[in-house]
Design brief:
This protein is mainly α. The chain is built from 9 helices and 3 strands, in the order αβαβαβαααααα.
Length: 210
Amino acid sequence: SHFADSIKRAHALARADIGYLDCGTSGGVHGQKNGFCLMVGGDYAVYQRVEPILQIIAAPHGYGYMGPAGAGHYVKMIHNGIEYGLLQAYAEGFHLLREGSYKDLDLEKITRVWQQGSVIRSWLLKLADDVFKQDQYLGSIDGKIQEGGTGLWTVENAQKNKIAVPVMEQALKVRKDSRETGGNFASKVIQMLRNAFGGHKIEIKRENEL
């Protein structure tokens, strides 16, 4: 939910003496097994009452009180804006590796090596390795990247606060362009990673489109 809507709901429910917490949640489809990352906003006394439940469903040390009403969803919104930028950077790099100066590089080997001590190692890189183990060319994947809106909210909030976020703005533009042009290898990588961590739907091209 947009953090501004969470603030409105908290105020409306407070008039009826009902406590309301907004809880930004990350972890995707893996969170059920490994625990979620929980960012909570609202009345701190209410937070303290439900904290034992949060501790059970969160990853170790993976939850916290972010601030008053809306703060949980605000922090998660920024989290998703960062996610857009990270995905875009990885995808552009893999695109260059696939179609740049060397045409036969082993992307699965590269992602595996990068996970061992590299400064860009991450869970996203591990997921990319899993993707490339299955398919390094992604020829049957549709390159149109969908989105849930949080990236746009992040950019709009940055503009409102006069804070420059060129990486997030460009990542958002790339997603929009992909839906108009059909995308490229980089956008296919983003599609596959979004599916890997969040279960987001990917489209497979029909045989006559390949």
